[in-house]
Amino acid sequence: MKKRAPISDIMTKKVITLNHTDDLETAERIFKSKKIRHIPVVSGEKIIGMLSYTDLLRISFADAVDEDEENVDTVVYNMFTIEQVMAKNLTSVSSTTTIKEVAEILAKKEFHALPVVDNNKLVGIVTTTDLINYLLEQF
Description:
This is CBS domain-containing protein. By secondary structure, the chain is α+β, with helices and mostly antiparallel strands. It has helices at residues 24-34, 53-59, 82-85, 99-108, 128-137; strands at residues 18-19, 38-43, 46-52, 113-118, 121-127. The strands form two sheets. A three-stranded mixed β-sheet has the order 1-2-3. Strands 4-5 form a two-stranded antiparallel sheet.
């Protein structure tokens, strides 16, 4: 295992994002079709928040029963905007932050994804799943 390996080695570089003007119905469709759990929310090139699938489940039990269902019940979603539901006070890391440092952050915090930001531009996302897969590759 490399001691100083940068997070850029394991982060997702082709990041799926939401615009802050998108609606929650769009967000749920993306979560389900791409089988992901975290989506950075941007305004232009600047990241302004992070929306998790859990955030959607907190406001609606509509689709908690069948995650494979592609249809979305939008009644509750029409009552909220992405900006009202997303996490706003984000912790982010740079692409040169070590995998070990990222693991320490995620182990101590209550979230499971970190945006990777260089020069105020979103360049990737790293999740606890990325870290677990990295560890599995080491054995």
